[in-house]
Structures are given as C-alpha cells and as structure tokens.
Amino acid sequence: MRPVHAADEMTDKQATQVAEDAEQAAPETPRVRWRWAETGLMLGFLLLGVFVMIKLWIDPNGRVLQGNDSDHGIFLFMLAHAERVVFDGGPLFYEDRFNVPFGVNMMANTSILALALPLAPVTHFLGGGVTVVLLMTLGLAGTAAAWYWVLSRPLGRSRVAAAIGAAFAGFGPAMVSHANGHVNFVNNYLLPFIVWQVLRLREPGRAWRGGVILGLLIVVQIFINEEALLFVALTLGIFAVSYALMERAEAKRVWKRFVGGLAVAALTSGVLAAYPLWRQFFGKGTYHGQPFDPSKYVMDLASPGAYARNSLFGIGAITRRLSVSATEDNTFWGPFGLVMIIVSIVILWRNSAMRATAIAGMVLLVMSFGPKLQVAGFRTDVPLPFALIKHVPVIDLVSVSRFAMVPSMVAGVLLAFAYDRIREYPEKTRRRFKIGLVLALVPLIPRPLPVFEGTPMPEFITAGLYKQYVPEGRTLITVPMPEVTTGRTGQRWATLNNLDYATPRGYFMGPAEPPENNTGSWSAPSRYTSWMFKNVGRTGEVPEITPWRRAQVEADLKYWRAAVLVLVPDEKHTPALRTLLVDLFGQPQLVGGAEIWRVNS
C-alpha cells in the first residue's frame, strides 16, 4: 500500500475546495446568463433605435424628418444655440443671432440645454443633423433601458416582464411618433427615476437624502422637457391621492416623511432653477398663452383601438383621421393592445398600488380627449371633465393630446406587472395571456421614420463666401424668410452653420407684438416685407412695386440690418420670388452657386 504524502494531502484538499467552489458557483450560472441577456437587451434597444431612425442616419445633415420638418428645424436651432454657448461664449439663456434684432428667449423655448450643451462638440464638428439623430436614437433606447432598470430592480419585476414593459414604454407608438421631430419628448430616461425617487420618499430616513436627489433630477428634467415633468407630477399626484384613499392606515404612517421629502425636493430644485425660471417667465422675450387653442388638439376616442402610422400594422389614412399630426400618435395601441391593457388592469385590480396606477393613467387619458368628445374624426358636443380645468394656468399652455403620453407609459408598467402576476394562474390562462401579448405587441413594432432630401446648401454658404458680404452686426436674409410654415430651408441652413451668420425671423416661441401684445407666437412679429415674401411664396402672385411698397421694404431691411439677400432654390414659387427680388433690387449676382442681392448700408 502506497504511503500518503503531504503532497497528496494537499491535492485532496484542493480537490475538495474546487468541488465546494463549483457547488457555490452553480446558483450563479443563471445570474451570469442574465447579465449577458441584459447586455443583449440593451444592445437590442440601441439597434431598434437605430432602425427607427435609419433613414435619417444615412444623411443626417442632408435629410429632414418628413413627419414634422418644422420641429426638426426648431431643434436644429436649439443645438446651434448650445454650440454657440460652448464654442463662442454666447449668452446661455438668450440667442441674439436669430430673430434679429430682437432675439429669442431660450428658457421660454424647448431649448433642451441639458442635452444640447454636452453634445455641443458633436454639433460643432459633425453638424446639428448628426446631433439630432443621435439624440433621437439614444432617447428611444435610453428611455426603454431606464424603464427596464426601474421595473426589474427597485420595482422587483422579472426580467422578461421588465423587458416587455420597457419596450412598450420606450418604443410604443407615442414615443416613435414624437421621434418625428420632438427631441425633448423622446429623451424621457429621467422620468422613471423621478417616479422611483418619489415612491422611495415613504421609506424611513429618506426625506433629506431622497428629497435632494429628487430635486436634482427635477432640475435636470427642467432643462430637457418641462411639459413631460408636468405630466409626471400630475400622474404622481393622482396616484398618491388614490392610493392614500385606498390605504389610509399606510398613508397616516408615512405621510409626514413623504411630504417632508417633497418639500426638500421643492426647495432644492427651487433654489437651483430660480434664476433660469425667472428668465423664462419674466425676462426679455417671454410670453403668455399659446398661438392656438390647445383644447383643439385632442385625442380621438377611437384612437386607442387603432394603429399608429409608423407601426407595423399602421394604415396612414386611418391614423390621419384620428390624430392631429404625425408627432401626436400618443395612444394607438391597436385592438389587441387595448384589450391586453384592460386585461392587465383586471388582473391587477386587487392590488391598491396597481389600482391607483391604473386610475392615474385613465384620468390622464380622459384629459387627453379634451373639453368635448371627438369620435372617428367627428367633434361632438358631449362635454368632458377637461372643460372644467382648461383655463387653469400652466394647464392652458399644454397641448391636450400629449396628456395621452402618460397612459402609454402606464400601460407598459401594467403589462409588466400583469405578466408576473399571471404566473400564479392556471397553465391555460397563462398561455392565453402570452398569446394575447404576442397579438398585441407584434403589430406595434415600429417602422423606420420617413424622411425627404433637404435643399442642399450652396457653396456661397458652405465655403463661407458669405463672410465677404455680411460684415459683423449685419444679417443674411434667405428668401423665403424662415417662418413656422414657410422658409424652413433658410432656418435649416442657418442652424446647420451654427448661426455663424445672423438672420432675422425664424420658427421659435416668442411674444406676438411686444410690448403691446405678449401673447405667444410661433414666429417674429409680422413686418410688411416678410408678409409680402410669404404671400408671394404661397400664391405665386407678384405685386406691383409702388413707391410705398419700396419704402416699406427699405425700412424693414434697415430694421433687420440686412447685408445680403439669398434666393432659396427649389421652393414652390421660386420664379415668382425671383421676379419680386429683381423688381425690388435689380439683377442678382451669381456667387458660389447662389443668386444674391446686396443691400446698401
């Protein structure tokens, strides 16, 4: 018999240790697999975001989102402003090289400073078009990823359930429709964390720390999208009241620390955002009200059961009948989707928190229908509760249809919780629920958003030849001039050049006729020349140039500090506009592929 040596004893011990380590590692194997699966899921969200925006990715600075080219242009302006702040030291809350000579109050607009400033180098070196498509892509993917983390971690949902809810909240019809031009409404990844932090305020010892964290999140969200912050605040308020009425004992136990945490959050955000908000509501270029009646932009009662135009099963003609625009398909869950949301509510109804969540979503959905019911495109005289609050300050500034963005997020949460709850049901019921989910979600798979080719910039602008004609303090005017519905090419050219040349007018929010009338307007106060350019561009009819008209044009050009006018080619009535310019200023010069008219000082 062979003797046992120390080396053999060490070998046996090592073998035992390896066995024990393997035993302990076995339960970790699924966790490791899930880490890889979660990484794949995040990558999948990113790839889906690229897929939705792929047509714009092909040529970000040359193409324009077809669904809302006006808002595509206004966010190019926001990005150009941030680039000027970072690289030229321009004022943070005001832009003086747009809408010359008055300028634009950036806090009174959706300036997305929290996004635009960090990405200013991208705008500077690659162009604002690249930054737009990057923000759209990361916004869709980031919102889904944020909802996944909150649902799977603090809210304790299974990973499959969290993935379902996150995909619905991040890539549902509401989010994809806003990706047609609304950078601010696509980047919603802070909202799940705001919700989470509010819910955590009921925990012992969270009032100060949680309140400060919540306050900081609120401040950042203010510089992304104040409107979305308002929606979340309304939703959480309705949820809190509903839950407190259902769980009064719980409410009595936690209300002091909950309210205390909210007070700390209000104090933190109030101190940090006080000056920017003062500039927004009381600084130069502020306004009140909207240039339209917000209650006219409402969701149709039939829209929750239909498909959005950019969904796999979407039919454009039907969606246009039920929606106010391509960026406002805020419900459109489809018939199976609507049924599954209702089924989820029924499954979860006994849970007070889920019941309160569903109530909050339903209240915001009813609000999105506006003061009077609209059905299948027909406005009725049936009054709705929103009529009682439509004139409440702040509420009267919101596009009513956007209240429906909340039910879309709530629907994702309900589907996630219902998926986990259904596991307690018999196998047959579980199978039916999963089949229903497939029927609900597959038709909602988004399609790539449509685009069109923008008018290329001439060498006169791209090569900087305009600098020889536009001295400091003077402006370059594109004809037709930039407006909310016309002259979008002129705004696009100026903003893709990061406002290196100053230009009058444009599409933004400002006072209609300051200081006499500070009602909100989508463009600068009308001048005779801008009206004439717009009218000729719309009708093709060229007026006779009388001495009075010539004097009006001269006064307006002096007001705008004009140095040169550039005719934008390929517009609807470019020949008529050219005739008008020739009648006013004589024959043009052809410089760098552009027809220009110099303006005497």
From TrEMBL:
Protein name: DUF6311 domain-containing protein
Domain (DUF6311) ranges: 91-390
Biased composition (Basic and acidic residues): 1-12
The organism's taxonomic lineage, starting at the top: Bacteria, Bacillati, Actinomycetota, Actinomycetes, Micromonosporales
Keywords tagged on the record: Membrane, Transmembrane, Transmembrane helix
Transmembrane segments: 40-58, 106-126, 132-151, 158-176, 206-224, 230-246, 258-278, 332-349, 356-377, 397-419, 431-449
InterPro entries recorded: DUF6311
Region of interest (Disordered), ranges: 1-26
